[in-house]
Specification:
16 strands; Rossmann fold; Dihydrodipicolinate Reductase, domain 2; 325 residues; globular; 8-stranded mixed β-sheet; alpha/beta; 2 domains; 35% helix
């Protein structure tokens, strides 16, 4: 059981981790960042947390029995390699590294690691996991803010943001592969068919760039529809109530319902960043491995490898232009 946490990194996500730690009531014994970090200074003053400007000093102080690493993914692997041999549990912000190959360098510490895919802990995701059937047609749409045509931005958004949804697909629906992954220039989106280890599932995935699309995961199973749209909201319905047209309202309206009632719905609400408190509770309890809700290192490697396949499909399409040029 972890009782004293140190946070490594003082970027924009660090305050959310601090908020979650304080919500649970575990002691924060230090924050470690570069010597010139104004964020670390502010956090230290506001929360009365000891500031370390050197990782070696934090380690030698022996004040912590658990660590949260929320630094740039370019630096996270080397930090884990320093902490791992000490045997302390580590919550590592997703995606955890700049490549799946880099993540594989941490496999000897897999028993200590939880990767911070917090959406696994959304109330909506828990409801989908509990209520959705294990068969049907899956439709996944991901909205990215990066501009279509800006190749590097598109790839970065896939590797750092779309990877969240790729992890959720595997977590909720099991192992899967892409069929014919490609970038569609006309639709300005990535798309692929999905084949699942569960032969009772099949589906499609689309990633839209700079398009106002909520990320969603929808499962059609018989007369039922189970969906996360957006991911923070779970809904299910199996019928429509029809509102016939009138002189005042001449358009026929269709209202989705569940067994003739309002659609069954679960909304993720939280005083903190959704999923962070439950993720932290899972982490400090020492629940690691395949039976844990928390993301294992192996799952994180798989999710990032899938994101890399999408990134390669994007790169291949842009290489055609370079060849023609």
């Amino acid at each position: 059981m972890i009782t004293r946490i140190a946070i490594i990194g003082a970027g924009e996500i660090a305050p959310y981790h601090i908020q979650a730690v304080q919500k649970i009531g575990v002691e924060i014994v230090g924050i470690c960042a570069t010597p010139d970090s104004e964020n670390a200074r502010k956090i230290g003053i506001e929360h009365r947390i000891r500031i370390f400007s050197n990782l070696d000093d934090l380690i030698s102080s022996k004040v912590a029995d658990g660590f949260i690493i929320c630094v740039n993914s370019k630096n996270s692997v080397e930090i884990v390699k320093k902490l791992g041999p000490l045997g302390f549990p580590i919550l590592l912000e997703k995606p955890g590294a700049i490549s799946s190959q880099s993540l594989k360098e941490l496999q000897e510490f897999s028993h200590l690691l939880t990767i911070g895919y917090n959406r696994r802990f959304y109330e909506s995701v828990k409801a989908f996991q509990k209520l959705a059937p294990g068969s049907g047609i899956v439709e996944i749409n991901i909205g990215e803010s990066s501009k279509y045509g800006a190749k590097e931005d598109m790839i970065t958004s896939v590797l750092t943001n779309s990877v969240h949804i790729l992890d959720l697909i595997g977590f909720l629906l099991g192992d899967f592969d892409f069929i014919n992954p490609r970038l569609d220039r006309n639709a300005q989106c990535f798309l692929a068919e999905l084949i699942f280890e569960n032969v009772h599932l099949a589906g499609t995935i689309k990633i839209f760039f700079q398009t106002p699309v909520n990320s969603q995961l929808k499962l059609y199973s018989g007369s039922e529809v189970h969906e996360l749209r957006p991911i923070e909201v779970f809904s299910r319905f199996n019928s429509f109530d029809v509102e016939e047209p009138t002189l005042i309202q001449p358009l026929r309206k269709y209202h989705p319902s569940w067994n003739g009632q309002q659609p069954s719905q679960v909304v993720s609400t939280s005083e903190t960043k959704p999923g962070f408190v439950d993720q932290l509770a899972n982490f400090i309890s020492g629940e690691f491995g395949p039976k844990s809700t928390g993301c294992s290192l192996e799952d994180a490697i798989t999710a990032l490898a899938r994101a890399e396949l999408i990134a390669e499909a994007i790169s291949q399409e842009f290489r055609k232009d370079e060849t023609l040029g």
